Amino acid sequence: MRTKDLSYWLFLAPVLLALTVVIIIPLLIGVYYSFTDWNGIKVGSFVGFENYIDSLKDKEFLDSLWFTTKFSIVSVILTNVIGLSLALIVTTKIKSSKFLRTIFFMPNLIGGLILGFIWQFIFIKVFAGIGDLVGIESLKGWLSTTETGFWGLVILMSWQMSGYIMIIYIAYLEGLPGELLEASEIDGAGPFQRLRYIIFPLVAPAFTVSMFLTLSNSFKLYDQNLSLTAGGPYNSTQMVAMEIFKTAFGERDMAYAQAKAVVFFVIVAVISLTQVYINKKREVEM
């Protein structure tokens, strides 16, 4: 038993070491710096909660936080709906299911910056061309307003993440007992009844995992935001990660940016853990 315990910890040791060195220690150092006037080179004096108080009064930071929250809510819902829909399609008895899985997953392999530039071309050039062709003025000037910039980011995020989330749902859908589905079909249950009363409860753990992943990815989005809208117009589509980066490296206010990052970390952690708790509770009830 002692040998087993020792081997268990030896097996975990590299992961725990990497986690400590790469995440935990930098996090603690960052929290310490947030209480100082650190300028990126040296630590001057201890300023207490001054940086945190200023961050909660910073309109640009609060606006970016509100924009990120709205974006995350819409993206999480849309990505999971599309991902589950794609999973239901490719798990049916169609000959091209493996090919479709590959096609749907491929956008996730494209880097965030490249993806943003691709969609920037589509929204600006292609949409404008279609608008000229069919005479729809609203298709012109995409990404030039806050509303279209918002939906541009949502479309980009959903297109990139849906295939990845699809894989998670596929893993659970393919593990469903076929006898139960066949029995429900014999008993006269329609497709929507099977989906509501059998499939949804059995794939409940997949909702927990996929919602956590989409939520965390939506909140920390940076590359796509930078290459698609660069926060414009007038920082109205600037997300929190970009605003913190600009504070740190644009304004050279490292300690203040670190305080914003800690506030952001706490908010995302609370939301993510709450979401996991609620979904886990629903799994038990189902």
From TrEMBL:
> InterPro entries, per this entry?
ABC_transporter_permease (IPR051393), MetI-like (IPR000515), MetI-like_sf (IPR035906)
**Segments forming domain ABC transmembrane type-1:** 65-275
Name any GO cellular component annotation: plasma membrane
Keyword list (alphabetical) reads: Cell membrane, Membrane, Transmembrane, Transmembrane helix, Transport
Compartment annotation: Cell membrane
Give the way it sits in the membrane.
Multi-pass membrane protein
For this protein, the parts annotated as crossing the membrane are: 7-35, 71-91, 103-130, 150-173, 194-215, 261-278
Q: CDD domains given for it?
A: TM_PBP2
A single GO BP term for this record reads: transmembrane transport
Main location, first listed in the record: membrane
Q: Which Pfam families match?
A: BPD_transp_1
Tell me the protein family, please.
Belongs to the binding-protein-dependent transport system permease family.
* Protein name listed in UniProt: ABC transporter permease
